[in-house]
Design a protein that fits this description.
With about 260 residues, this protein is α/β, with parallel strands linked by helices. It is built from 10 helices and 7 strands. A 7-stranded parallel β-sheet has the order 3-2-1-4-5-6-7, with helices on both faces. Helix 1 runs parallel beside helix 2, helix 1 crosses helix 10 and helix 3 runs parallel beside helix 5. The longest helix is centred in the middle third of the chain and has 17 residues.
Length: about 260
C-alpha cells in the first residue's frame, strides 16, 4: 500500500531513540522529509544517520530539551523553514519515575506534568498555524497504554498522560474541517532500550515475564509501532480523528 507520504514533511519529537526513533525511521522509509530532536547530541547524531539511510528525503536533527517551551516552538519554526513546511507532527515526551500514586509529593506531580504533558501542548500550539496554512495535516501524540488502563506501578504517568487525551479531544473541534486530524497513539510494552535497561543482566527472563501477561504473547517491536504511526499519518487515515489507538498486544482489557 502506498501511504502517500513521499515528500511530506514530518517533525518527530523525542526521536533520538526508542519509539520516537522508530516512527522517524518508518516515515523516512516511506519517503518523507523528517526532522528529529533529542537531548543527547551523540545519540542524536547516530539517530540522524540511521534515519537518513532509509529514504530519499531530507533529514535534519536538533539538540533540544522539550520542557523548554520557547526552544520547542523555535524547533518547529526552524525545522519547517528548513524543510519547506509542515505536514505531520508527532509529539512525544520524556518518561517519569515509576511508583504508586501515594509515593509522590505534589512537586513530583508538577514535574511529571511539565515532562509528560506540556511538551505535547507547546509543540502543537507552535505547529497549528503551519498545519492550518497547509490545509492538510496529521498530529499524532504518543502517550502510553496507561491512559486507558492505569497501572499501579506507573502512578505519575497514569495521572500526567491523561491530560493528553483531554487536549486531543479539544483539538478535534478546534481543527474542524481544516484538513488536519489529531489522534493519540497509546503504546504498551515494546523492546526499547528504556524497557530493556530495567532488567539489568536478566533481560530475556524479564521480558518473558512481561510477555506472559500480554495476550499476543510477546513484547512489541519498535518497528510495529512505527508502522502504526505511518498509517495514521497517511492520507488513508483521513477520516480518523479524535481516536486513542492502543498498541499493546491486547494488554488493555477495558471497554471504551
Amino acid at each position: 500500500m502506498d501511504l502517500g507520504l513521499t515528500g511530506r514533511v514530518a517533525l518527530v519529537a523525542g526521536s533520538s531513540s526508542g519509539l520516537g526513533l522508530a516512527v522517524a525511521k518508518t516515515l523516512a522509509a516511506e519517503g518523507a522529509h523528517v526532522a528529529i530532536c533529542g537531548r543527547d547530541i551523540d545519540k542524536l547524531a547516530h539517530a540522524e544517520a540511521e534515519v537518513a539511510a532509509l529514504g530519499p528525503g531530507k533529514v535534519i536533527s536538533t539538540a533540544l530539551d522539550l520542557t523548554d517551551e520557547a526552544a520547542a516552538a523555535a524547533w518547529i519554526e526552524h525545522a519547517a523553514e528548513a524543510l519547506d513546511g509542515l505536514d505531520i507532527l508527532v509529539t512525544n515526551s520524556g518518561g517519569v519515575p515509576g511508583g504508586p500514586v501515594d509515593d509522590f509529593a505534589v512537586a513530583d506531580y508538577r514535574r511529571a506534568i511539565d515532562t509528560s504533558l506540556l511538551p505535547h501542548v507547546s509543540l502543537t500550539l507552535a505547529a497549528l498555524p503551519l498545519l492550518r496554512q497547509r490545509g492538510w495535516g496529521r498530529i499524532l501524540m504518543i502517550a502510553s497504554e496507561v491512559v486507558r488502563q492505569p497501572n499501579p506501578i506507573y502512578g505519575l504517568s497514569s495521572v500526567a498522560r491523561l491530560g493528553i487525551l483531554g487536549y486531543m479531544k479539544g483539538l478535534v473541534d478546534a481543527l474542524g474541517d481544516s484538513g488536519v486530524t489529531v489522534n493519540v497513539l497509546a503504546p504498551g510494552y515494546h523492546r526499547t532500550k528504556m524497557l530493556v535497561d530495567q532488567f539489568g543482566d536478566d533481560v530475556d527472563a524479564g521480558l518473558a515475564r512481561v510477555a506472559e501477561d500480554i495476550p499476543l504473547g510477546r513484547i512489541g517491536d519498535p518497528s510495529d509501532f512505527g508502522a502504526l504511526a505511518a498509517f495514521y499519518a497517511s492520507n488513508q487515515a483521513r477520516f480518523i480523528t479524535g481516536a486513542v489507538i492502543m498498541a499493546d498486544g491486547g494488554n488493555t482489557r477495558g471497554i471504551g
